[in-house]
């Protein structure tokens, strides 16, 4: 059976905690999916966790999954447990979802949160007291305890929401929370972020109906904004009024990186790692020397980054004298401290080419599956790692003659000896740091299996020479010296490099990579640096992504499937659009898929209709109605609430980016512009401007506030879309200090009387023909390969499609319909048309949206709030 | 149908002679049963499972671990999803999901009639009664299942019998 869980989905907690019960009784595979993935083919709405049984049936209820695990362990059902579980589903869950929604999505605190669950908590406390037992259904922990604990944990793990006076509940909760299965489940699901980890999940949930006794207004905007406390609003207003004065003096810099927006002293570097077998192979293929190949590709890479507007302070390379100097120094220090071993290794040697054959220079028959073209390190068919000498019928890739096994002396980094230091360091570094869960998990699993000595030399010519007698014709293994490249690249950039790299107290090192590189950054390099005992700066935050797939399969250079860096500029799509879409789809937490159709949709819906539309309208109103000067703003309580609301979202943006949740933070930007659009739509400045003096003033306030939100968005956008950001700032003539500093408060940066520039549209619609031809050019429909690839990527649940999948033409047609219908609705509302008529048109619009969602193979979105504009 | 009435109906279906008295509790008017030999029980599905055991028909709760879990899952579905929603949209999503689930099943657990079928039948009755002929045809698998359960000996009691047409009328809509 297979269990699908999702980080940040609360139901995953009890299920993981109970899963241990099934161990040894059934084979259980656990897969992580996104909270919105539709795993169960027959359910319209996404549901996680889900257990797929061996019979093919599904359990999609959290309690039922836990119950099943308990039943497998021989537990028998009883009335009392049934009663607790029914109570949990019908009484506790609604109260708890409301509390979590208020806390996480709406940012409420204290009694506003606790109020909705207090009665349920008291009920548990009383029951525990009345029965005078430590657990809900007796003296031992059982199903009811796990299910209720899992439901309550996200809220109660914050002591503020575990009332002291409920002492029985208190001790029950503490007992369960300290048990190992529960602890582990909590770590996996909440990732040490506490209740914030649930935010992406909760945001997708419909807003809970307000608790009794509270007046319900019919205005959805009112309802959504009314959640802020008075102080929050007052604080937001004060900050807003201070405006430009509160900005700190500007440090000279212009590069679009978040930490620079925060005025943190940042060094941003990257480089090409140029040594190793791959280079030698490629050089041979192209008939160049390794150095020439490196020069050629370094320029290509640098150009790509430049085109994408990635603003490294330095983009360096590893084939430099500094690299040799620093690598050899670290090696000498390791050697002197006894962390280097010597051993003999059996290796394949081609007598005709007179050299040892590194992994990729040899091919043969896979010893595991019999695949004919297995490489020396790994079989492409069965994916198993191979030791080159185990290959059957090995062949030298260059001359095709049969190599012989020869022994060769090599040096090893004594990782077992460094293991303890590594663990101590991790123990100090990890708590409170922002390692991504996969980085942490991979590192931990290496440590759990025990470290083994790792060979750090190779029989190659292209590499950093080994400064030791007897090893003159050998070089360092590329993964020993590639990570040292960061140091040498800095050394080439500034002679003060040691102030960055030997300064762990003051420097916070973030390293970004795909997950396959984690062992080298999380284990091998830290071990080298710790062993060298030279006070090196070690990684504080290891940020690893999952993989990005292409359309239905994988990117593959050899098969010509996918868009690669150097091709992106030939597509005619601006770099900023690429940046936006790739970051929007950034594989954070799970694999994601690049899809042309989706890129078109996101561009046309999010950028064009949401973000671009808002910023353009705000600017146009200033130009058209107020002659290009920002009007006077007289804030009403509604406007003040909007201020507070934008501030709240801005704080979320900061919170997320500080945690390097780049993809989620982008959504905060889009949320703000959605609020902005709604605000304009409700207040209709284009009508007010024609009315009385008071109406005109209202139009001025709305326009002024909107254009200030646009200014804020331009700064928030800077790390994501630097060119677009600069364009907006030029259009609005945003004063220079406000352009490149982002505070945690929303300020009035465009005060009344400020003159803006010429406003023009920011984004272009992507047309279907254009996208379709790009898809064909870069190999979209790889039908013949899908079967093979599905087998390999089966970790992802295959989402059953409902109905027939629509072609991109149909999708485009539907999108046009949605836009058209949306305009009809907007016009009707603007004309204050008859309510029933509006409702009928809205229903049509919703239906069209649903059709569109089905055509795209997505589940229809659960509506947020009650009404949607 | 109030929970107490539904439980009385279930008692008859199970062949339990003595009728229990139920009180109601809380906002949701959850039924409460005062048992002879212990504390009271609260909640529709909890009491229903208790009655099944009283009637010595435990097979209605499922015989394997898997069946037991599936029965409880659909009982939970009954009280959270079927009872929780009354908007037309929600009910249609629910019927659509159920229709797709029942595509390859005779009963909710697959091949065995269980308490889940009984309570879901009781819970859905008020919605199915109101469906148009076209909708019944649209949710063909739900209709087949519902029709089957209402003819199951002793289940329907005084509830109205819903008519399903055997011939398809709207062939184009499929």
UniProtKB/TrEMBL annotation, chain A:
Stored InterPro entries: Anticodon_Met (IPR041872), Glutathione-S-Trfase_C-like (IPR010987), Glutathione-S-Trfase_C_sf (IPR036282), GST_C (IPR004046), MARS_N (IPR041598), Met-tRNA_ligase_1 (IPR023458), Met-tRNA_synth (IPR014758), Methionyl/Leucyl_tRNA_Synth (IPR015413)
Protein location: Cytoplasm, Cytosol; Nucleus, Nucleolus
EC number: 6.1.1.10
Biological process, per Gene Ontology: methionyl-tRNA aminoacylation
GO MF annotations in UniProt: ATP binding; methionine-tRNA ligase activity; tRNA binding
GO cellular component: aminoacyl-tRNA synthetase multienzyme complex; cytosol; nucleolus
Keywords: Aminoacyl-tRNA synthetase, ATP-binding, Cytoplasm, Ligase, Nucleotide-binding, Nucleus, Protein biosynthesis, RNA-binding, tRNA-binding
Residue ranges occupied by any WHEP-TRS domain in the UniProt entry: 810-866
UniProt cross-references to Gene3D superfamilies, sorted A to Z: 1.20.1050.10, Glutaredoxin, HUPs, Isoleucyl-tRNA Synthetase, Domain 1, Methionyl-tRNA synthetase, Zn-domain, S15/NS1, RNA-binding
Reactions catalysed: tRNA(Met) + L-methionine + ATP = L-methionyl-tRNA(Met) + AMP + diphosphate
TM stretches of this protein: none
PROSITE patterns tied to this protein: GST_CTER, WHEP_TRS_1, WHEP_TRS_2
SMART domains: WHEP-TRS (SM00991)
Domain GST C-terminal: 74-198
Pfam families, per database record: Anticodon_3, GST_C, GST_N_5, tRNA-synt_1g, WHEP-TRS
CDD domains, per the entry: Anticodon_Ia_Met, GST_C_MetRS_N, MetRS_core, MetRS_RNA
SUPFAM superfamilies reported for this sequence: Anticodon-binding domain of a subclass of class I aminoacyl-tRNA synthetases, GST C-terminal domain-like, Methionyl-tRNA synthetase (MetRS), Zn-domain, Nucleotidylyl transferase, S15/NS1 RNA-binding domain
Similarity-based family: Belongs to the class-I aminoacyl-tRNA synthetase family.
PANTHER family hit by this protein: METHIONINE--TRNA LIGASE, METHIONINE--TRNA LIGASE, CYTOPLASMIC
General function of this protein: Catalyzes the specific attachment of an amino acid to its cognate tRNA in a 2 step reaction: the amino acid (AA) is first activated by ATP to form AA-AMP and then transferred to the acceptor end of the tRNA. Plays a role in the synthesis of ribosomal RNA in the nucleolus.
Full protein name: Methionine--tRNA ligase, cytoplasmic
Organism: Callithrix jacchus (White-tufted-ear marmoset)
Automatic annotation (TrEMBL), chain B:
Acetylation among keywords: yes
The keyword GTP-binding belongs to this UniProt entry's keyword annotation: no
Location (main, coarse): cytoplasm
Gene3D superfamilies: 1.20.1050.10, 3.40.30.90
Location relative to the cell: Cytoplasm; Nucleus
Start and end residues of each GST C-terminal domain: 50-173
Pfam families per record: Arc1p_N_like
TM ranges: none
Domain of life: Eukaryota
SUPFAM superfamilies xref list: GST C-terminal domain-like
Keyword line: Acetylation, Coiled coil, Cytoplasm, Elongation factor, Nucleus, Protein biosynthesis
GO molecular function terms attached to this record: translation elongation factor activity
Single GO BP term: cellular response to leukemia inhibitory factor
Function: Positive modulator of ATM response to DNA damage.
PANTHER family according to UniProt: EUKARYOTIC TRANSLATION ELONGATION FACTOR 1 EPSILON-1
Protein name: Eukaryotic translation elongation factor 1 epsilon-1
Organism of provenance: Callithrix jacchus
Gene this chain is encoded by: EEF1E1
């Amino acid at each position: 059976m297979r269990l699908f869980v999702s980080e940040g989905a609360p139901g995953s907690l009890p299920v993981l905690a109970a899963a241990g019960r099934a161990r040894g009784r059934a084979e259980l595979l656990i897969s992580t999916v996104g909270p919105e993935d539709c795993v169960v083919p027959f359910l319209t709405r996404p549901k996680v966790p889900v257990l797929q049984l061996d019979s093919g049936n599904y359990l999609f209820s959290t309690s039922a999954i836990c119950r099943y695990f308990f039943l497998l362990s021989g537990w028998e059902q009883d009335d009392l447990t049934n009663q607790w579980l029914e109570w949990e589903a019908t009484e506790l869950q609604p109260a708890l979802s409301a509390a979590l929604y208020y806390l996480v999505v709406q940012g409420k605190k204290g009694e506003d949160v606790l109020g909705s669950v207090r009665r349920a908590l008291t009920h548990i406390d009383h029951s525990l007291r009345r029965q005078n037992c430590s657990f809900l259904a007796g003296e031992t922990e059982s199903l009811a305890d796990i299910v209720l604990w899992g439901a309550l944990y996200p809220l109660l793990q914050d002591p503020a929401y575990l009332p002291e006076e409920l002492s029985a509940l208190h001790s029950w909760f503490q007992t369960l929370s300290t048990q190992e299965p529960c602890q582990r489940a909590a770590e996996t699901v909440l990732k040490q972020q506490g209740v914030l980890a649930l935010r992406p999940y909760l945001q997708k949930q419909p807003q809970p109906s307000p608790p009794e006794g509270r007046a319900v207004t019919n205005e959805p905007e009112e309802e959504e904004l009314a959640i802020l406390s008075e102080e929050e609003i007052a604080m937001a207003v004060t900050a807003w009024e201070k405006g430009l004065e509160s900005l700190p003096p500007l440090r000279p810099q212009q590069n679009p990186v978040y930490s620079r927006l925060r005025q943190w002293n940042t060094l941003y570097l990257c480089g090409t790692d140029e040594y190793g077998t791959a280079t030698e192979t490629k050089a041979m293929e192209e008939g160049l020397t390794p150095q020439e190949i490196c020069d050629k590709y370094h320029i290509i890479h640098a150009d790509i980054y430049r085109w994408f507007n990635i603003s490294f302070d330095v983009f360096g390379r590893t084939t430099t004298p500094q690299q040799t100097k620093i690598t050899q120094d670290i090696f000498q220090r390791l050697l002197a401290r006894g962390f280097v071993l010597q051993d003999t290794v059996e290796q394949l040697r081609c007598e005709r080419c007179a050299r040892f054959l590194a992994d990729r220079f040899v091919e043969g028959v896979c010893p595991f599956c019999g695949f004919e073209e297995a490489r020396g390190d790994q079989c492409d068919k069965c994916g198993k790692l191979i030791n080159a000498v185990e290959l059957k019928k090995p062949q030298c890739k260059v001359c095709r003659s049969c190599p012989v096994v020869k022994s060769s002396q090599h040096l090893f980094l004594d990782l077992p000896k460094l293991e303890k230091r590594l663990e101590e360091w991790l123990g100090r570094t990890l708590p409170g740091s922002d390692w991504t869960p996969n980085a942490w998990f991979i590192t931990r699993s290496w440590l759990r299996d025990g470290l083994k000595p790792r060979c750090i030399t190779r029989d190659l010519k292209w590499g950093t020479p080994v400064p030791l007698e007897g090893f003159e014709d050998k070089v360092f293994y590329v993964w020993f010296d590639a990570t040292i490249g960061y140091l040498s690249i800095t050394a080439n950039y500034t002679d003060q490099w040691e102030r960055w790299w030997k300064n762990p107290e003051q420097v916070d090192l973030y390293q970004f990579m795909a997950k396959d590189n984690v062992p080298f950054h999380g284990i091998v390099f830290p071990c080298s640096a710790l062993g060298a005992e030279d006070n090196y700066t070690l990684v504080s935050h290891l940020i690893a992504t999952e993989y990005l797939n292409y359309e239905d399969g994988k990117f593959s250079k050899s098969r010509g499937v996918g868009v690669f860096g150097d091709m992106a500029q030939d597509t005619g799509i601006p770099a900023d659009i690429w940046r936006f879409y790739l970051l929007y789809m950034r594989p954070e937490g799970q694999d994601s898929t690049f899809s042309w159709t989706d890129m078109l949709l996101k561009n046309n819906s999010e950028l064009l209709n949401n973000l671009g539309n808002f910023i353009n309208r705000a600017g146009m109103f200033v130009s058209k109605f107020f002659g290009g000067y920002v009007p006077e703003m007289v804030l009403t309580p509604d406007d003040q609430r909007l201020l507070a609301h934008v501030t709240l979202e801005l704080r979320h943006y900061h919170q997320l980016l500080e945690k390097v949740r780049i993809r989620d933070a982008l959504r905060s930007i889009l949320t703000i512009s959605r609020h902005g659009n709604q605000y304009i739509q409700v207040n209709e400045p284009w009508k007010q401007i024609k009315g009385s003096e008071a109406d005109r003033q209202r139009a001025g306030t709305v326009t002024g506030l909107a254009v200030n939100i646009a200014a804020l968005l331009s700064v928030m956008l800077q790390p994501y879309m630097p060119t677009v950001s600069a364009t907006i700032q030029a259009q609005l003539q945003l004063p220079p200090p406000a352009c490149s500093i982002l505070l945690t408060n929303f300020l009035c940066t465009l005060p009344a009387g400020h003159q803006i520039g010429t406003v023009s549209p920011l984004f272009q619609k992507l047309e279907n023909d254009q996208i379709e031809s790009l898809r064909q050019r870069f190999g979209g429909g790889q039908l013949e390969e899908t079967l093979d690839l599905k087998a390999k990527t089966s970790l992802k649940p295959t989402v059953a499609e409902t109905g027939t999948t629509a072609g991109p033409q149909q999708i485009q047609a539907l999108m046009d319909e949605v836009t058209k219908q949306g305009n009809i609705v907007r016009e009707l509302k603007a004309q204050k048309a008859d309510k029933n008529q509006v409702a009928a048109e809205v229903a049509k619009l919703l239906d069209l949206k649903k059709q569109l969602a089905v055509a795209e193979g997505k589940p229809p979105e659960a509506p947020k709030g009650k009404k949607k504009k | 149908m109030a929970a107490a009435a539904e439980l009385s109906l279930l008692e008859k279906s199970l062949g339990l002679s003595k009728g229990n008295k139920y009180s109601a509790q809380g906002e949701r008017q959850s039924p409460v049963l005062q048992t002879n030999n212990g504390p009271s029980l609260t909640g529709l599905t909890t009491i229903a499972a208790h009655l099944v055991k009283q009637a010595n028909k435990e097979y209605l709760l499922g015989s394997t671990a898997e069946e037991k879990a599936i029965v409880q899952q659909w009982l939970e579905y009954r009280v959270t999803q079927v009872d929780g929603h009354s908007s037309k949209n929600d009910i249609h999503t629910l019927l659509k999901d159920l229709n797709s689930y029942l595509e390859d099943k005779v009963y909710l657990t697959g091949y065995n009639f269980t308490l889940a079928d009984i309570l879901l039948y009781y819970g859905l009755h008020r919605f199915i009664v109101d469906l148009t002929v076209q909708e019944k045809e649209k949710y063909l698998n739900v209709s087949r299942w519902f029709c089957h359960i209402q003819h199951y000996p002793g289940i329907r009691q005084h509830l109205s019998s819903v008519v399903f047409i055997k011939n398809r009328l709207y062939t184009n809509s499929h």
